[in-house]
Amino acid sequence: MAARPIQPRFTPVTLSSALAVLLSALACGSGGGPTGPSSTPSPPPAAARGTVDATRVLRTVDSGRVLGGNLAAWVAPQALSGPTGSYVVQRGARLLRFPGGNLSNSFCWVTMRASDKDLVKWDDWSWGTDVGSYLAFVEGVGGEPMYSLNPFDHVIDGQPHSALDEARQLVRRLVSRGHAGAFYEVGNENDGSWNPMLSSVDYVDRFVTFAEAVKREDPQAHLMGPVGSGTEAAWRDGFIDGLADRGRLALLDYFSFHYYGGWISNSNSAGIDLSAPQQIPGYVEAIRDHLAARGAPDVGVALTEYNAAIWDTGATRGQYTIEQGLWLADTAGELFGCIDLGDVWIDLTGDDPQGMLTSQTTPPSRTRNYWPMYLVARTLGFGRRDAAVEVLEATTELPTTRATIHAVRGSDGSLGLLLVNKGEALAAELSLTGRPCSTASALLLDGDAYAAGTGPAPHTATCTGGTLTVALPKLSAVGVVLGP
Questions:
Q1: Please, are residues 19 and 27 in contact by the beta-carbon 8 Å criterion?
Q2: Are 401 and 330 in contact (CB under 8 A)?
Q3: Which residues are bridge partners to 260 per DSSP?
């Protein structure tokens, strides 16, 4: 939420008082010109007090899975070489989804052909990233594969292709490469008109068929669905109830869905909503509650696409702004507290305001949106994709529409804090419970650093007497790590 500008304040004076001031100035002057009004000092930053309770562990998560990403078949495989792998590792991602979004429904990996949602005209995509190049990259970064299976039979050059057979072949290939236990989604956003649509009933049928086939090839495989485009209750409950009524809920390992902060178009006035990240835990809770009610409390929840907005053609409002950066950092922080797997949309792509890396340069380079995720990885993942991160209870006196705090403890006892300031400057004072002070290191991502695309800069944070003190400039995110 943009801060309201401070209006200048004027004190009315009478003519006689103004004349008296002028005469006094002339009488006392030393021959120099008028010095002008003295500057008004800026008001001190508002206090942001809070508590981090190290005795209250809410859950334990794998940061490399929470900070996962999306790769795409529409990027040439050459873009996966050079520094790309190190960039993905440094921003904390281990779980990597492929072949990407809507393309999942119309990509034939066997022939490297791709179509639109009608599955009629099939184009040659031999120039793109194939399964072999994708797996080589995953293995090179110590990653884990997640593949979105095409659930639709198709005909290419008059030759019928069974989607189920191609899924079986894919699983065999991954197992042969040492990826038993990989993650598989069935389709992508088939609740939306931009894809081949399925009712929840039809989707359940396909999910059961594909899940059974995949698990016959790899009993350790993790199956994910319904890959919905949003949080619609009818699609959510229809999928869960459909599996339960058929007695096949045991096939589901993770309920997966997508979440974007908003739809920005030239036909509306929408912008980046900095309060939207705090809606995600409620949606996740509703999913977990419904799973538990149908006898599946141990099924995980995965958010396999998220970003601050979807932009309509020609709309640029909010793209590559500090607000988009803060949305990403705050959302990633929220995910540590509520989901089991997460994949930001999208890592490596071309001219895309949602991208972390751009393939328009050779070698690929980091975009402005890379740095908020990097900050989270350095803070909540401790720069090492920590697989045993304990999420701690953290509260502030301010509403989450104004500022948020996310806190974790690493496997070595380090404390990681991510503070997001959504308005004017704040002076944060955080009391530590159950954890003594230790050496503090901090990184700051503010509007200037985001606009420059240079990444977060070192920042000052002190911890004494059980209180951490750190300044939060206007519209900024600060990551602090206290040593073990």
A1: no
A2: no
A3: 307
Spatial contact of 377 and 67, defined as CB atoms under 8 Å apart? yes
Query: How would you classify the pairing of strands 122-124 and 348-349?
Result: unpaired
- Angle (CA) 150 155 161, round 5°: 55
* Main-chain phi, psi angles of 54, to 5 degrees: -75, -5
d(CA 148, CA 210) in angstroms, rounded, equals 11
Tokens of 173: 């290939």
Q: Per residue in 107-142, pLDDT tens?
A: 999 999 999 999 999 999 999 999 999 999 999 999
The CATH class of the 46-55+391-482 domain is mainly beta
Residues of the chain with CATH 3.20.20.80: 63-386
The answer to whether 171 and 221 have CB atoms below 8 angstroms apart is: yes
- Beta strands, E only, 261-332: 263-264, 300-307, 310-311
Return the axis-axis angle of helices 233-245 and 200-217, rounded to nearest 10°. Answer: 50
pLDDT averages per 10-residue partition of the chain, 484 residues: 30 33 33 46 84 98 98 97 98 98 97 97 98 98 98 98 98 98 98 96 98 98 98 96 98 98 96 98 98 98 98 96 98 98 97 95 97 98 98 97 98 98 98 97 98 96 97 98 97
What does DSSP assign to residue 164? H
Kindly list the strands in the beta sheet with 113-115, ordered across the sheet, starting from the edge strand earlier in the chain. Answer: 107-108, 113-115, 122-124
Sequence-distant (6+) residues with CB within 8 A of 160 are 153, 154
CATH 2.60.40.1180 residue window(s) in the chain = 46-55+391-482
Q: Could you give the CA distance from residue 368 to residue 172 in angstroms, rounded to a whole number?
A: 38
Please state, in angstroms and rounded to a whole number, the distance separating the CA atoms of residues 152 and 105.
7
Tell the residue number behind the tokens 């690929």, with chain if given: 364
Structure tokens at 7: 């209006």
CA angle, 225 as apex, 224 and 230 as ends, to 5°?
A: 130
pLDDT in tens, 251-279: 999 999 999 999 999 999 999 999 999 99
Q: Which two tokens stand for residue 4?
A: 């309201």
Average per-residue pLDDT for the chain: 92
**In the 8-state DSSP scheme, what is residue 361?**
S
Q: Which fold has domain 63-386?
A: TIM Barrel (3.20.20)
